[in-house]
């Protein structure tokens, strides 16, 4: 900016000097000696004018900013900090950004920031090549909800693709935003509200049925002497069946009510080794009675977490109980389970619960956390649904991960 101002002042001064010499030469007596002297004096401002005009001609054109106002030119040294700041923001953006060089979608998908590189790194996406093909096939200008397999199970994400041209070459910018946690939270809230409404309405109907059936049983006993024996027996059997079923349904519905009344988490600093030691004292006798064992491990032993200890303990108890029941139903001779806590990439706490039971069929894996869904005839579908509620209440996620060998594997990430 200062250099441009100096060049303009030089042009103005040169023009003024040349005009002054021209006026002086015209006013003086036209002698050859004086004309030559004025011409010599005009060489210096003419040369200065030429240099200033050349310098101004070499300056790059101004860019027009928003609103039609001319944006002030910036030197390379001024632009470098802004470029570095922009690169840092893109690197740490929570959205995975990719570049696709060919507009046809046949090019190679290249990660542009840390989120994209971590997604394609070993230990995250189960099939990086399939994920690349999936993203490259997405249409431009539309948002699509896609699902892909990861080490922690299936995850859903929102994909948006934009087309642009850089240096004359067509490219696509692919943005992948993970939304699995948000979708799960919304689903949990919807289930919680539905369960709350259903249990309230069902309890309102069952309570008087149970009460009236017990009252009718008492009245029937009082009128036993006036009724024939066969009629009394039939009425007594019918009323007793009604009372028993009503009481059973009341207990059944009350168990589901717990899904809608999960208390708020009370997080505190917890030493996981001590937490696992208390949990081992609770569940080990039951597993030993089945002829099996549970192994707990914390890596490193000093690992701590800020979490609601009671809710974490209840979630792990439900998972281990589910493993024990599945192993017993499948007739596993020596059931085993392992509970391991360690830090994953990004410093997040990961707790893995694995067993050697029958596992979960692939067709049912997407439904096991749904309330009321159970693979057992006498199951109520509460255990795993409660696990998900408790984990989400502490800001975490729970996934059914594809096991390396036989059995089931659940991963809790906080």
TrEMBL record:
Q: What class of enzyme is it?
A: transferase
Provide this UniProt record's keywords sorted from A to Z.
ATP-binding, Kinase, Nucleotide-binding, Transferase, Two-component regulatory system
Q: Where is the Histidine kinase domain?
A: 197-414
Q: Catalytic activity annotated for this protein?
A: ATP + protein L-histidine = ADP + protein N-phospho-L-histidine
Residue spans making up a coiled coil are none
PANTHER family for this protein: C4-DICARBOXYLATE TRANSPORT SENSOR PROTEIN DCTB (PTHR43065:SF46), SENSOR HISTIDINE KINASE (PTHR43065)
Descriptive protein name: histidine kinase
What's the source species' lineage? Bacteria, Pseudomonadati, Pseudomonadota, Betaproteobacteria, Burkholderiales
């Amino acid at each position: 900016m200062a250099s441009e101002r100096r060049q303009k002042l030089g042009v103005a001064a040169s023009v003024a000097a040349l005009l002054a010499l021209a006026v002086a030469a015209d006013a003086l007596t036209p002698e050859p000696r004086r004309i030559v002297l004025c011409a010599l004096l005009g060489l210096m401002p003419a040369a200065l004018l030429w240099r200033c005009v050349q310098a101004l001609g070499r300056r790059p054109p101004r860019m027009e900013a928003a609103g039609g106002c001319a944006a002030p030119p910036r030197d390379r040294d001024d632009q470098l900090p802004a470029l570095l700041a922009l690169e840092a923001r893109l690197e740490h953006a929570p959205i995975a950004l990719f570049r696709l060089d060919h507009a046809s979608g046949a090019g190679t998908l290249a990660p542009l920031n840390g989120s994209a590189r971590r997604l394609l790194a070993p230990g995250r996406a189960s099939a990086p090549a399939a994920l690349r093909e999936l993203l490259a096939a997405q249409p431009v200008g539309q948002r699509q909800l896609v699902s892909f397999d990861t080490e922690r199970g299936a995850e859903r994400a929102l994909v948006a693709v934009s087309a642009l041209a850089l240096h004359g070459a067509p490219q696509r910018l692919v943005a992948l935003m993970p939304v699995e946690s948000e979708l799960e939270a919304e689903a949990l809230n919807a289930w919680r509200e539905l369960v709350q409404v259903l249990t309230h309405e069902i309890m309102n109907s069952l309570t008087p049925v149970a009460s009236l059936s017990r009252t009718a049983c008492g009245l029937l006993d009082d009128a036993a002497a006036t009724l024939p024996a066969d009629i009394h027996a039939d009425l007594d059997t019918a009323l007793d069946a009604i009372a028993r079923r009503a009481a059973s349904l009341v207990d059944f519905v009350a168990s589901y009510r717990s899904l809608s009344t999960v208390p708020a988490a009370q997080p505190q600093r917890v030493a996981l080794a001590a937490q696992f030691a208390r949990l081992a004292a609770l569940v080990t006798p039951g597993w030993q009675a089945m002829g099996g064992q549970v192994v707990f491990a914390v890596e490193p032993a000093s690992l701590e977490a800020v979490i609601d200890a009671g809710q974490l303990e209840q979630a792990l108890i439900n998972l281990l109980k589910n493993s024990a029941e599945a192993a017993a139903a499948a007739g596993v001779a020596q059931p085993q389970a392992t509970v391991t806590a360690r830090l994953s990439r990004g410093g997040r706490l990961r707790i893995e619960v694995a067993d050697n039971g029958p596992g979960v069929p692939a067709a049912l894996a997407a439904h096991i956390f749904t309330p009321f869904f159970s693979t057992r005839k006498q199951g109520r579908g509460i255990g795993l649904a409660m696990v998900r509620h408790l984990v989400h209440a502490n800001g975490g996620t729970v996934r059914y991960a594809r096991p390396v060998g036989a059995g089931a594997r659940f991963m809790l990430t906080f």
